[in-house]
Each structure stands twice: as C-alpha cells, then as structure tokens.
Specification:
Rossmann fold, N-(1-d-carboxylethyl)-l-norvaline Dehydrogenase, domain 2, Transcription Regulator spoIIAA, 4 domains, seven-stranded mixed sheet, 15 strands, elongated, NAD+ binding, NAD(P)-bd_dom_sf, 3-OHacyl-CoA_DH_NAD-bd, oxidoreductase, oxidoreductase activity, acting on the CH-OH group of donors, NAD or NADP as acceptor
C-alpha cells in the first residue's frame, strides 16, 4: 500500500461535504483533485471555498499565505481519468447504494491497484458498497461530520472484507488531518447515527402521546447539558433527512421496533414542514424556539417533617439543599439511606426521583396520594436554575399540585410540568442512549471508549453514554428501562444483554 503522506487525493462530489473534505486534505498539504458529475460544479465549489477562506483570513483564523496555498492545491477536474495518480479516493455523492457501487467500479479502472477507496456514507453498508469490486479489501468507510473543517470526528468503518491495514492507514491519516478517528464495524447507522436515534425517538414518542410541548421537552434536555433540544436539532437537520435516516436504520434492522419511525415526524415531512430550510418545523423561523416563560412559585409550605430518602450523589445534594435553604425550618432533615427510593418525604407527601415508574403507579403501590416524580438532574450542581421536568399523581390533592413545583423551585430548579409519562424525558432518553450504546458494544460495532468519543465529537453530547452510566448505575438504568417496558409492553425498551451481564 502506497504511503498516504502528502499523497494525491481525489474527492468525488463537490457539495458541502465534498468541498469540506477537499479543504481539510488541502490544508494538510495534499494535492487534491475535485470532481463532480455536474459540469462546472467543482469549479464553483472552489470559488465558494475561496470566499470561505477569505473570511477566515479576515477573522485572523488563518494567514493569507495559508489560504492561497490551500486553494492552489485543489484542482477541479473535468473527468475522473485526470486523477489516475490519486492514492486515496473519498466519495461524497448522493446516499444511494447503486450510485456508489457504480462509481467505485468505475474508479477501480482509473486509479492504481494500491490506492485506497473510501466512502463518506453516513448509513449505507460498507460491505454492500464493496460488493462487486475487484479488490474489496481496499475499500473502507471514512465518515466525516458537517461542517467537515470544524467537526473532529471521523468514523472509520470496516466492511466484512476491509483489510485491517487499510483501516489503520485511514485512522493515521485522519489524525494527520487533525481529526479524531473512531473505528466502527459496518452495521446500520455505524456508531453516531445508531446510538443517537433515542435522542430524537423518545421526544417524538412523548409528543405523540401529548405529554408535553416541543418547547418544554427541548428546555429540559438543554438544561441537562445538550446544546440543542431534539426538536430544535431535528428542525436544523431537516425532518426529511432525519426521517430518512431513521427509516434506513429501521429497515436495515429488519423492522426492529427499537428504531420505529415516528408518525409525528412523518406528518411534518408529508406537510413540507421540514424545519429551518422550509421556514417551519416544530418552530417557526427565523425566530426559532421561544424561551420558556418564567413562572413564579410560592414558598413551600411546612407540611410536616422532612426526610431525605436514598443514598448517592443526588440524595446527598438534596440533603444539602434542604439544609442550606432551611426548607425544613430550624430542624435538620432526617435521612433514610437504606430507602428503596430517592427523594423527599414532606409530611405525608413524596417528591420522588424518577425510577421510570409514573407518579400514579408509585402512589397506587405505596398507598400515598400526594406523589410527584421529578426528572434526573444530570448537571447537578453545575447548572442551578435549569429546567427540570416533573409530574404529579392523578389523585394528588390540589395543595400538593401547587407544592410539588414550589419545592422544586426552592431547591433551585425551574419546574416544567409534564403529563405523568414513565421516565419523564431526561431519564428515559439517557437510559435509552446508554442501552443503545451497550448493544453496539455487545455486537462489536465499537468499544465503550469509542462510543463515548463518537457521541461527544460527532454530535456534541455533553458526555458519552458510558460516562453517564458510570455516574448513574447499571441497576438504575435497568430499572428505568424495565419500568418503560412494563408500561408500553413492546420490544422498544428491551434491555441490552451487555447491561445484564455487567450487572451479574
């Protein structure tokens, strides 16, 4: 295999992704051939890139000399034959299996036998694209993320016949280009597009059962550390694109109910409400998602002695907040560390950290009418005043319906009411992200470290799924999943065997 150090690179496809890949390769010192089937598209892409680089120069991000050198290394070409010397081909054309297969079969007759063939596909099987090639062992996935120059992650995807040396060469090249490569086995969605499905799916499921508005769900997940809520993010990606990826993963997994597409999103697509690019999705643009209105809450009433239940970080934090805020009056709150639940007993009422059960179920099982559940506060104590979902049992008193949010507000949160749905929003979303990542590791798609790196670098998650698991617990995650499974009675919330084995 020819060394890829400063070797000629052919980028096929002069759209946003292809142009970004060409820019990164040229900035790293490679001569780059840029080709597009549409006549003149490659030259137009270079002209746009020149304007982009000029903007970076004006902002002091790069020097004028570096910008000029980058542009000089990119050569728009009229036909693939001009790029016969390329040691690496990176394809970034339409996400269509037949189109990609046809292109790579043509490329095999253009480039040398030692050249590496790579696809920027985000969801199509690398094994399937390589089918029919004379040398499928030199074919590999090299999945960049948009915008390519800024996003650090590259998923290096091996198909069944990919030579390990080829994957290692692409990993080394990615590092040389300033990227962080994460190796993945070719399965539907690879790492990021697979593990990320629950981030959208749980919110869409809650919307379908009218548990909350997009505005409230987005606010709660942003308070948990995500840069954008699921509804904002789907509007940004485009509902047509997001829905297509979900369908692709669903179909590739033979209709596995864990990946079932959403009727809510299909209706948006059918109506042409695609998000930012159409001017309207969950929100109207350019305004976007409105901020949650501030709500004033009365001071919590002294309803009786306060007891902090449970052990661990969240129970400890509750005890400190109750004591510091003098929420139990002059008395120090009592503590029951061996309790089966985490939260506060306030007289005859209970404020319970969700374990996946609904407030109504807890109230019925415990024989206590005044029950409210609150969501998992992931960023404690880093983000006081953040939105936190809660729900009140259907038969709770009118007094407790007012007091539950008053107590949460006194503890430093902005209470956000939801219907009494199991797992609320943050807890069920994080549990499902962890569960999906666990299955990916179980199936050899990636390592736990690879999953964490991919989700943080590829979609800017505040932590990786296994980092969340370390702060939570396997038993706690499984309890939420079991409660969701018991409530909805389907395949969607089945627990990964990886989690069961880890707990054993």
């Amino acid at each position: 295999m020819t060394s890829l150090n400063n070797a000629p690179v052919l980028v096929v496809g002069a759209g946003i992704m292809g142009t970004g890949i060409a820019q990164v390769a040229a900035q790293a010192g490679h001569p780059v051939f840029l080709f597009d089937m549409r006549e003149g598209a490659a030259a137009q892409a270079k002209t746009k890139l020149a304007a982009t680089l000029d903007g970076l120069v004006a902002k002091g991000k790069i020097t004028a000399e570096a910008a000029a050198a980058t542009l000089a290394r990119i050569e728009p070409i009229p036909s693939l034959d001009v790029a016969a010397s390329a040691a690496l081909v990176v394809e970034a054309i339409v996400e269509n299996l037949d189109a990609k297969r046809s292109l790579f079969r043509q490329l095999e007759s253009v480039v040398g036998e030692t050249a590496i063939l790579a696809s920027n596909t985000s969801s199509i099987s690398v094994t399937a694209i390589a089918n029919g090639l004379q040398r499928p062992e030199r074919f590999v996935g090299m999945h960049f993320f948009n915008p390519v120059p800024q996003m650090k992650l590259v998923e290096v995807v091996s198909g069944l016949q990919t030579d390990a040396a080829v994957a290692r060469a692409i990993e080394a090249l990615s590092v040389a280009w300033g990227k962080v490569p994460v190796h993945a086995r070719s399965t539907p969605g690879f790492i990021v597009n697979r593990i990320a499905r629950p981030y959208y799916a749980e919110t869409l499921a809650l919307l379908q059962e009218q548990a909350a508005t997009p505005q409230r769900l987005d606010a709660c997940l942003k308070a948990a550390g995500f840069r954008m809520g699921p509804c904002e993010l789907m509007d940004l990606i485009g509902h047509d694109t997001n829905f297509a990826v979900t369908n692709s993963v669903f179909e590739a997994n033979f209709g596995d109910k864990r990946y079932v597409p959403s009727l809510v999103q299909r209706e948006l697509v059918d109506g042409g409400l695609l998000g930012r690019k159409s001017g309207r999705g969950f929100y109207t643009y350019p305004e976007g998602a409105p901020a949650l209105p501030a709500t004033a809450h009365e001071a919590p009433l002294a309803m009786g002695p306060v007891t902090v239940h449970g052990d661990g970080e969240i129970a400890d934090r509750l005890e400190r907040l109750v004591t510091q805020g003098r929420l139990s009056g002059d008395a120090t709150p009592s503590r029951q560390r061996q309790s089966a639940w985490v939260g506060l007993a306030i007289g005859g009422a209970r404020l319970v950290l969700t374990d996946g059960r609904t407030a109504g179920d807890i109230a019925a099982r415990e024989g206590v009418a005044d029950v409210a559940v609150f969501d998992r506060p992931l960023l404690w104590p880093a983000a006081p005043g953040g939105a936190l979902a809660y729900a009140v049992a259907p038969r709770a008193s009118a007094t407790w319906r007012q007091q539950a949010p008053a107590w949460l507000a006194a503890l430093g949160f902005a209470p956000v009411p939801l219907a009494d749905a199991p797992g609320l929003v943050v807890a069920r979303t994080i549990a499902m992200l962890i569960n999906e990542a666990a299955d990916a590791v179980l199936q050899g798609v990636c390592t736990p470290e690879g999953a964490d790196a991919a989700m943080k670098l590829g979609v800017n998650y505040p932590a990786g799924p296994f980092e969340w698991l370390a702060r939570w617990s396997v038993a706690g995650v499984m309890q939420v999943l079991e409660s969701l499974d018991a409530y909805y009675r389907g395949e969607r919330y089945r627990i990964s065997p990886w989690l069961r084995r880890t707990l054993a």
